[in-house]
Amino acid sequence: MMRMRYRRMLAVLGLVGAASLTGLAGQAQAQPSADQLLTDMGLSPDDKQRVLNGEFVTADIGAVSDRDLSFAIAFLVKTSPASLAKQIVAGELITADTQVQTHGRFSAAGSLADLAGLRITDDEAKALANAQAGEALNLSTAEIAAFKALSGGTTQAVQEQLRRMLLARYQAYRASGLAGIAPYDRGGGATDLAADLRKAGEAAKGLQKYLPAFHAVLLGYPKATVPGTQEHLFWVKYNIQGKTTTYVLTHVLAASEGPARAVVQRQYYASTGYNGEQAVAGFLPVQGGTVVVYAAHAFTDQVAGFGSSMKRSIGRRVMADQMKKMFEAGRKQVK
To answer: Cis omega before residue 222 (within 30°)?
Structure first.
């Protein structure tokens, strides 16, 4: 899961370079310096110098729910924000992830044609047709009933239902934002991903402080808008480590302020493995390169309940170690 998230982050950050943004200068405070943003991140003077020296420095950010694996990291890349973004976006990096089986963008209104490239195997169809309330699959009560009605049917029928389900979730989100996200049926209860994503948005204090209009779009989408914001909505089918098929719906919001870049990636649906995610990334120019600041809230029921504090602590440490290794590998590719 962590490797998949890192590859997605690279592709998402690259969208900033691909977008022709007019900036939010009239809507924001003065662009923060890298030093100020690292201070806001809670780093000490010594830790800030470590970042500028090329080290990866992690920071704790508060969990917004008992399902939250929150994480933040800062590091230096020896190129400009614009150059970094262009290098990342070159070659459609989403396809560089070997775990991506297929993907596509939604048109504004959304249609089944947008999902024509989504195909499933007989085993994948069987897993969906046998769906039950619980944590194995993230589905609403109505979605479970729709798939179970196809039990014993053809793979084609289940595939068509999967496309309809993903389209319906996209259209509901496109029309109503967080309010349009259907909860996951856990059997005797439900997981409200929308509530977790809203809390993550409210916790994005850096956006609120320096790009308040952009922050308002994050919380008030789709009613809240501001000129200069670029968005992309797409679907992806992943095969995680050759074992787990996961269908993900993602919304990317991007903005610029001078030479700096800000991106929000919101995964408002993930079919299995975790509930969803919201990440904020920033590129800030410094002498000799760009400071990259990345903060994420990944939500999973696997760290909730009894002992959740300890499980989250362990989960964050594991994630920090893995992410450092992955960011280091990615940084070596940037020139």
So the answer is: yes
Token duo for residue 37 = 């943003």
Sign of the four-CA dihedral 206, 211, 217, 220: positive
- Residue 296, token pair as written in the block: 């994420």
Give CA–CA dist 332/77, Å, rounded.
9
146 Cα distance to chain centroid: 27
Rounded CA separation 11/5 (Å):
10
> Do 129 and 155 form a contact (C-beta atoms < 8 A)?
no
Query: CB under 8 Å to 323, separation ≥6 — which residues?
Result: 2, 6, 58, 71, 73
List Cβ<8 Å contacts ≥24 apart for 242-249. 244/272, 244/273, 245/101, 245/120, 245/124, 245/127, 245/271, 245/272, 246/270, 246/271, 246/272, 246/273, 247/118, 247/162, 247/166, 247/271, 249/166, 249/169, 249/170, 249/173
Query: What are the pLDDT digits (tens) for 156-170?
Result: 999 999 999 999 999
**How many residues in the chain?**
335
Amino acid (1-letter code) at residue 62: G
| Single-letter amino acid, residue 55 | E
Record the tokens describing residue 315, joined without a space: 């989960």
Q: For 227, which DSSP code?
A: T
Q: How many CB atoms lie within 10 A of CB 182?
A: 21
232 with 15: CB under 8 angstroms? Answer: yes
- Computed on alpha carbons and rounded to an integer, the radius of gyration of the chain in Å comes to 20
Task: Identify the residue with better confidence: 176 or 305.
Answer: 176
pLDDT of residue 335: 53
Nearest to 71 by CA among 334, 258, 281: 281
Dihedral-angle region of residue 35 (phi above 0 means left; psi in -120 to 50 means alpha; beta otherwise): alpha
Residue with tokens 């948005």: 201
pLDDT, one tens digit per residue, over 231-271 is 889 999 998 777 789 999 999 888 777 777 788 889 999 99
Query: CB within 8 A of 65, min separation 6: which ones?
Result: 195, 196, 199, 299, 304
